[in-house]
Task: inverse folding
């Protein structure tokens, strides 16, 4: 079963994903995509680590997500990925490009390559996967070009991943609402 858990910041989506993984009764491989680029992100990562089951195997993979999923999937394993939007951000800034406040955004080729690879892995695998992502399109249209690009691309990525998943769960205020499956 492939499950996408989507929600806003601090909606409870990671806790929902972790509970689902724990309830599977399978060995859990936790693929963390976050990179600790500053003190705030270090604190967020530490919070997630503290909550995570100590018996789980954690793989830190900020870029080659499809390859990490492919190499760790197995019949007796559930792979939990947290989170796709952080991963997309890693891809966007992988070349350390300073993007303009206004005007066209030209992302690294790595963005399309890695997103296509992820969707391909999801479409062909029948392994148990739980993927966490942020819903970023429920607010106003951002003013800056890079924020608009990110909102659009995250929405496209979420749609492609949702189409490849058996189940999609929207998490709001800690409450899961199944919208597919």
Result:
């Amino acid at each position: 079963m492939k499950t996408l858990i989507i929600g806003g910041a601090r909606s409870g989506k990671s806790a929902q994903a972790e509970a689902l993984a724990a309830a599977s009764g399978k060995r859990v491989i936790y693929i963390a995509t976050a990179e600790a680029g500053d003190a705030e992100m270090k604190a967020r990562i530490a919070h997630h680590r503290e909550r995570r089951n100590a018996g789980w195997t954690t793989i830190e993979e900020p870029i080659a997500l499809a390859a990490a999923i492919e190499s760790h999937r197995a019949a007796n394993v559930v792979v939990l990925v947290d989170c796709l939007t952080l991963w997309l951000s890693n891809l966007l800034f992988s070349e350390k490009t300073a993007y303009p406040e206004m005007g066209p955004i030209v992302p690294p080729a790595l963005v399309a390559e890695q997103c296509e690879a992820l969707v391909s892995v999801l479409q062909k695998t029948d392994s148990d996967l739980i993927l966490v992502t942020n819903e970023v399109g429920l607010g106003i249209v951002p003013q800056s070009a890079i924020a608009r690009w990110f909102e659009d691309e995250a929405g496209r990525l979420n749609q492609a991943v949702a189409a490849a998943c058996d189940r999609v769960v929207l998490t709001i205020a800690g409450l899961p609402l199944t919208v597919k499956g």
